[in-house]
Write a structure and sequence with these properties.
Elements lengths: L5 E6 L5 H10 L12 E3 L5 E6 L4 H7 L4 E5 H7 L4 E5 L5 E8 L14 E4 L2 H11 L4 E4 L15 E6 L3 H5 L2 E10 L1 E5 L5 H21 L1 E9 L3 H6 L8 E4 L5 E9 L3 H10 L3 E7 L6
Parallel strand pairs: 1-3, 1-4, 7-8, 7-9
Antiparallel strand pairs: 2-3, 4-11, 5-11, 6-9, 6-10, 12-14, 12-15, 13-14
The structure holds phosphoribosyl ATP (PRT) and zinc ion.
Zinc ion binds next to loops.
Length: 287
C-alpha cells in the first residue's frame, strides 16, 4: 500500500455503500470500484478507500488502521469506540426503536420492567434502559429480530426502523425510540501533522458537496418597493445579489435558501410579491 495516503473506510456491500461512494465521487475523489475490490486508490487525491464490514469501521478508525470512515451513527453508538463524529451525511436515516406485538399489554417504556427484549443492539439498549431505570432482560439476536416475540423468546424487540414496513408486516408496533440515526463521517480526535493536513483537504471537498446538497440557488424578480421585505424573508440572506431589470421599478434578486425550509420560504416570497422564481441545484459551496 502506498505511504502517506489518507485512508477512508466505507461499507463493502450494504445499505451505506452506494451513497458513500456517491458522496466521495461527487467530492472529486475518483476511484475504481468493482465487486470484490478491497482497496481502491484515488487518482485525484492521496486517498485510499477501504471496503469493510460496517461493524468493524469504528474500531479501525480508533486504532489508526484507517483515518476516517462512513458508518451509521447507530454503529458508532453501539461499538462505543474512541472516535469523533465529524459530520452528519443526511442518508441512511433510521431510528433504533422498541416495538411490541399488536395487542400486547406493554404500552410504554415503564411497562417493560421485568420483560424480555430481543435486539442486536445490546450495548445501546443496555445503556438506555439503565438511564431510564428499567430492568429488563436483553436477549441478543443477530438478524431477524422481529420474529423473536412470535417464537416466544422475547416480549418486545429493539431494532432499526426506517419505513416501518418490516415491523408492520410482523404485527409489531413502536412504543419508544432509543435514538435517531443517519450515516456519519467519523475520524479520530487527534492526527499527526501529515494526516491532519490531508484530512483538512479531504473534509473541505466533502463539506462543499454536503453544504450544496442542503441548499438551493434561488433567483426571483421583485418590485423595487418590496425589496427589503422580500430579502428579509430569505433566511440567512445577508447580502443578496440585486440587479436592476429593464422593466422599471423591478429588480432581480439572487441568493441561497436552505433545502429544509425551501417550500415555506418560496410560498412566503410569492405572497410578498416576488415573481418568476427560479430554483437551481448547487454543485458545491466552499465557505
Ligand atoms: O455486512 P455488513 O455488516 O457491512 O452490513 P449489515 O448487514 O450489518 O448492515 P446493513 O447494510 O443492513 O445496514 C447498514 C446501515 O444502514 C445500518 O447500520 C444503519 O445505519 C443503516 N440503516 C438505515 C438500516 C436501516 N435503515 C434499516 N431499515 N439498517 C438496517 N435496517 C433494517 C432493520 O434492521 C430492519 O430489519 O431494515 C429493517 C427495517 O426496515 P423498514 O424500512 O421496514 O423499517
Ligand atoms: Zn454490519
Amino acid at each position: 500500500m502506498a505511504q502517506n495516503n489518507l485512508k477512508i473506510a466505507i461499507q463493502k456491500s450494504g445499505r451505506l455503500t452506494e451513497d458513500s461512494l456517491d458522496l466521495l465521487q461527487k467530492s472529486g475523489f475518483d476511484c475504481e470500484v468493482y465487486d470484490g475490490k478491497l482497496v481502491s486508490v484515488c487518482s485525484t487525491f492521496p486517498l485510499e478507500i477501504l471496503f469493510l464490514r460496517d461493524d468493524d469501521i469504528p474500531e479501525y478508525v480508533q486504532d489508526g488502521v484507517c483515518d476516517a470512515g462512513i458508518v451509521g451513527l447507530n454503529m458508532v453508538r453501539e461499538k462505543n469506540k474512541n472516535v469523533k463524529v465529524l459530520e452528519k451525511l443526511g442518508f441512511a436515516k433510521c431510528r433504533l426503536a422498541i416495538a411490541v406485538p399488536n395487542g400486547s399489554d406493554i404500552d410504554s417504556l415503564a411497562a417493560l420492567q421485568g420483560k424480555r427484549i430481543a435486539t442486536s443492539y445490546s450495548e445501546s439498549l443496555k445503556r438506555y434502559l439503565l438511564e431510564k431505570g428499567i430492568q429488563a432482560e436483553i436477549v441478543i439476536i443477530r438478524g431477524s429480530v422481529e420474529i423473536a416475540p412470535r417464537l416466544n423468546i422475547a416480549d418486545a424487540v429493539c431494532d432499526l426502523v426506517s419505513t416501518g414496513s418490516t415491523l408492520k408486516s410482523n404485527g409489531l408496533a413502536v412504543i419508544d425510540a432509543v435514538f435517531e440515526s443517519e450515516a456519519v463521517m467519523i475520524g479520530r480526535e487527534k492526527n499527526n501533522e501529515d494526516i491532519s493536513s490531508l484530512m483538512n483537504g479531504f473534509l473541505m471537498r466533502a463539506w462543499a458537496v454536503l453544504e450544496a446538497r442542503r441548499t438551493k440557488y434561488i433567483m426571483l424578480n421583485a418590485p423595487q418597493g418590496k425589496l427589503q421585505e422580500i430579502t428579509a424573508l430569505i433566511p440567512g440572506c445577508k447580502s443578496p445579489t440585486v440587479t436592476p431589470l429593464c422593466e422599471e421599478g423591478w429588480v432581480s434578486v439572487q441568493s441561497v435558501v436552505s433545502e429544509d425550509r425551501f417550500w415555506e420560504v418560496v410560498g412566503n416570497l410569492k405572497s410578498a410579491g416576488a415573481r418568476d422564481i427560479l430554483v437551481l441545484p448547487i454543485e458545491k459551496i466552499v465557505r
